[in-house]
Structures are given as structure tokens and as C-alpha cells.
Amino acid sequence: MTISLMMVVMFVTACQVTSCGKANADSAAAKPLRVGVYDSRCIAAACLRSEWWNKQLQEKMKERDKAKAAGDTQKVKELEEWGQSSQAKAHLQGFGTAPVKNLLEQVKDKLPQVAQQAGVDIIVSKWQIDYQAKDAEVVDMTDAIVALYKPSEETLKIIEEMKKQQPISEEELLKMKD
Asked: Is residue 123 included in any domain, yes or no?
């Protein structure tokens, strides 16, 4: 096994130094990186208005009601804190530029197919790009990702309006009260 591993390492090293590496470098130079981007606020709206999220909330409320009936004040407190924390996070995600990784978990198994259909190499929030090379191609994937949550017509209208607005800064959102 050690010999096989050494042979693979030697082969990869040889390819990087010889024509194999040159071919890879040439093909990478010929094809610019295609970056799929999304508006995280729209993803938040789609997910947090979805049947899946509503079921999550209903389960948590049932759990809280059951804990109340059983007199389990510690469990009630934990669930109420979860609710407050979830609401605060939803505001940061839905109105600001907070990451939506937790919401994308619901559709992560479908993202490779969406990326392939759009011909993108990577998908990131459009608010999280700190630098972009001039030859990088950017493809807006917002609508394709939103569709994975099967949004209602009302949700789609909200998302369209949301796209017209600039996000609210985290500082401003944290100052706001429910």
C-alpha cells in the first residue's frame, strides 16, 4: 500500500512538472471561473415561508406546549430561547446579509444539479464576495435556488420586491426591536 501511495504521489508530481500540468494550466486559463451567486435575503424568504419551516415551527410549539403541560420549566425556557434566537437570526438573514448556510441545508443535495444546469463552478452569496477577477463570470442563481423551496406566488412577489431594495446593515437590524 505504501508503494502504491508513493507511485500515485510521484505520478501527480510528474504531471504537475511536465505536460500534464501544462495541459491543466492551459485549460484553466482558457476557461474562466463561473461563479453562481444568490441574494441570501431571497433564500431566507423562500425557506422561512416554506412548508418545511412551518413544520419545524409547529413541532417546536407542540414540544413547548407539551413541556408546559408537564411542568418542565427548563424545557419551556430552552424552547422559548430557541424561538427568540431563530427570530433574531431570521431578521438578520431576511433583511440583511447574514449567511444562510443553515437554510441551504434543506436543499444542499440539489445544489450540485442546479450548479451543473447553470454551468457554474461554485455557488456563494453575492454579499460574501470580497474580490472578483475581471475575467470571472458571475451568474445570478437566486431564482433557481429559491425554486428549490417551492415558494408560493405570494412569496415570489415578496422576493421580487426584496430584490429591488438594498439590504439593511447588521448594525441597524440589531438596533431594531420586534
From this structure: yes
Q: What pLDDT is stored for residue 134 in this prediction?
A: 86
Measured CA distances, 73 to 6, 66, 147 (Å): 60, 11, 40
Residue found by looking up cell 439590504 in the block: 167
**pLDDT for res 3:** 40
Residue range(s) defining the domain that contains residue 152: 33-166
Residue 28, pLDDT > 60, answer no
pTM: 0.76
How many Cα atoms are found within 13 Å in the side-chain-facing hemisphere of 85? 6
Residue 75 sits in a domain whose CATH number is 3.30.910
Cβ within 8 Å of residue 15, ≥6 positions away:
21, 24
Taking only the tens place, the pLDDT of each residue in 128-160 is: 999 988 888 999 999 999 999 999 999 999 999
Ordered alpha helix ranges (H), the chain: 2-17, 19-30, 40-48, 51-70, 73-95, 101-104, 111-118, 142-147, 153-163, 170-175
